[in-house]
Design brief:
Elements: H1 15-27, H2 53-76, H3 79-82, H4 86-91, H5 98-115, H6 128-138, H7 141-154, E1 159-165, E2 171-177, E3 193-199, H8 206-209, H9 213-220, H10 226-237
Antiparallel strand pairs: 1-2, 1-3
Helix pairs in contact: 2-5, 6-7
The chain binds manganese (II) ion (MN).
Manganese (II) ion binds next to helix 2.
């Protein structure tokens, strides 16, 4: 009996074909990069009017991509760092070479930034557990918003504002310079698990808001992805 061609497995890909493809890549001198730029989880214009499409495109496709590219180059040049995960790199904090610290921070910070936002009206609501923790630390959601916005507005120069879960289980607000973050354990940047980070570098808002950083911060609250934040809070509290 003749086996119908359409009932057979497709010829491609076969395991040997994947091996050949990998060998070709290696032979061409193309390194397999450790870190990858994650795609935006929504269209570039999905956050308008709070954040315009051009800002999103430049921010993701050039700034974040630039951190990933520089990080890959830096760790590839340093065998002691090449085997470490992003979180393992960040945990080294002040002991990292400056180029690795800046670009590892830039990659991690922006990766959490994109997913912490959602198109207006699609971010859900804070969970009961997170609401309770916010009320315990800040009195109310309005209190969190007020203190977080103040930290973001007053961070001098380029940096980030953070909501963190401290090792003692309390929430706290902090901020960091440049691409530092609370995973680095640096003095003055807070120490804990970051739940939410807001980028206050001028590249994050200048096209639309120029020097009006407080207006950008105010508009950003309309984009908060509470579903993601609920998930991060639950994960951070889960026994490891
Ligand atoms: Mn940025």
């Amino acid at each position: 009996m003749v086996v119908m061609a359409q009932n057979r497995l497709p010829m491609w890909p076969r395991p040997w074909a994947l091996v050949v493809a990998l060998l070709v890549l290696l032979a061409c001198g193309q390194p397999v990069w450790a870190f990858q730029l994650p795609p935006l989880p929504y269209a570039a214009d999905a956050l308008e009017p709070a954040i315009d499409a051009r800002t999103m495109t430049i921010h993701h496709d050039r700034h974040h991509a630039g951190y990933v590219k520089a990080l890959n180059a830096a760790v590839a040049a340093d065998p002691a760092l090449a085997e470490l995960s992003l979180e393992q790199l960040l945990a080294r904090g002040a002991r990292l070479p400056e180029v690795v610290r800046n670009n590892a921070g830039g990659h991690w910070n922006h990766s959490q930034f994109w997913t912490a936002m959602a198109p207006p009206g699609q971010g859900g609501e804070p969970s009961e557990a997170l609401t309770g923790a916010i009320e315990a630390s800040f009195g109310s959601l309005a209190g969190l918003r007020e203190q977080f916005s103040a930290a973001a507005a007053s961070r001098f120069g380029s940096g980030w504002a953070w909501l963190i879960l401290k090792p003692n289980g309390e929430l706290a607000i902090t901020s960091s310079a440049n691409q530092d973050n609370p995973l680095m354990g640096l003095r003055g940047s807070g120490r804990g698990t970051p739940l939410l980070g807001l980028d206050v570098w001028e590249h994050a808002y200048y096209l639309n808001y120029q020097n009006r950083r407080p207006d950008y911060i105010e508009a950003w609250w309309s984009l908060l992805n509470w579903d993601e934040l609920n998930h991060r809070y639950a994960a951070a509290r889960a026994p490891s």
